[in-house]
Write a structure and sequence with these properties.
By secondary structure, the chain is of the alpha+beta class. It has one domain. Helices cover 60% and strands 13% of the residues. The chain has six helices and four strands. The chain has helices at 2-33, 51-56, 68-77, 84-96, 99-117, 139-149, and strands spanning 36-41, 60-65, 124-127, 131-134. It is elongated. It starts with a helix and ends with a helix.
């Protein structure tokens, strides 16, 4: 009699462990499918994220600030005079350090990418170039919404 009770207890425990294991595999499977996240937003409407969390999940993040080019242009043109030659020299000097040039390029590349995806509003978080979640301001929350929408 003791042997039967032990065997049925082992079966119950084994069944519970199997359920836990299947749940873990499903959760890990969904998370593992996310390879790339692209965030499209403006400087006034930032999206928060944990770099450590994304690194742990091996998710590549690209963050586009869609008005970065406007901020760079404003900084580039600040204090320019009516003297065309002097203003040209000042702009060239400001572009030489590369920071504003990179900011301009990144801003415009984000706009082009957003147009390619056909994004309609911001913030927008794009998963693997295929699915978009609008209006969410925390990446971890967007990941949960993405996982829920893609549960098998």
């Amino acid at each position: 009699m003791k042997i039967k009770r032990s065997t049925s207890m082992i079966n119950i425990i084994s069944g519970l462990l199997l359920i836990v294991l299947i749940t873990l595999i499903n959760t890990i499977g969904v998370t593992a499918t996310i390879q790339r996240i692209e965030v499209f937003t403006t400087s006034q409407d930032q999206v928060g994220y944990s770099p450590r969390q994304l690194k742990e999940k091996q998710i590549q993040l690209t963050y586009y600030t869609l008005n970065a080019h406007l901020l760079a242009e404003k900084e580039l043109s600040y204090g320019l005079t009516n003297n065309r030659a002097l203003s040209t020299q000042i702009v060239k000097q400001r572009l030489r350090d590369g920071r504003l040039t990179n900011q301009l390029m990144k801003g415009y590349s984000g706009i082009l990418k957003a147009q390619t995806y056909g994004l309609e509003k911001y913030p927008a978080i794009v998963f693997d170039g295929k699915q978009v979640i609008y209006g969410v301001r925390q990446i971890h929350h967007a990941i949960l919404l993405y996982q829920k929408a893609n549960q098998k």
